[in-house]
Amino acid sequence: MPDKQLLMVAKWEKEKEDKLARDFQQAQQQWVTNKNKLAGLENYRLDYLRQIQRKGADGVKALSYGQHQSFIGKLDKACEEQNKLIARAKLVADQRRELWLKQQRKRKAVDMLLDKKLQQRELKELKEEQKLLDELSIQKFIRARA
Q: How many distinct structural domains can be found in the chain?
């Protein structure tokens, strides 16, 4: 059986990997959520512009036109801010993905070491078993000759 310490290290590395995978998934979900919010804002802005155009066909007062323009400006600003949030969320998701992949490589290295130690132990046991069988065969041969 491989070293208990190495098994413990493998367990810790797997737990770290699992946590980093969850962190990456959360960051990716935040990025998608922000993209969906932007799509909603852009659709609302487009609908609002169409509504103004329909009202404009009937004539719009200067005060009302100014209010509409101001509101559209606020929607544009909200879209810009949402684009910034998307960029930050994408950056965070990419960083967390890299951390997760790095940890995954580290965990795989520990697993490979565990496998190597296990193979070495199995090979040693096979050699010992073969040595024992050889000794038994020699003793049997000696007894048969005697």
A: 1
Scanning the structure block, which residue is given the tokens 């998934």? 25
For position 85, which CATH number holds? 1.10.287
d(CA 109, CA 13): 10
Question: Is residue 32 in a domain?
Answer: yes
Two structure tokens written together for 59: 């004539």
State the amino acid at position 12 in one-letter form: W
pLDDT tens, per residue, the chain with 146 residues: 558 898 999 999 999 999 999 999 999 999 999 999 999 999 999 999 888 887 776 666 666 778 888 999 999 999 999 999 999 999 999 999 999 999 999 999 999 999 999 999 999 999 999 999 999 999 988 988 87
The DSSP H or E segment spanning 8 is helix 4-58
131 domain residue, yes or no = no
Lookup: tokens for 127: 């050699």
| 91, two tokens | 């950056």
List the end-to-end C-alpha distance of the chain, in Å, as a whole number: 42
Assigned domain for 138 exists = no
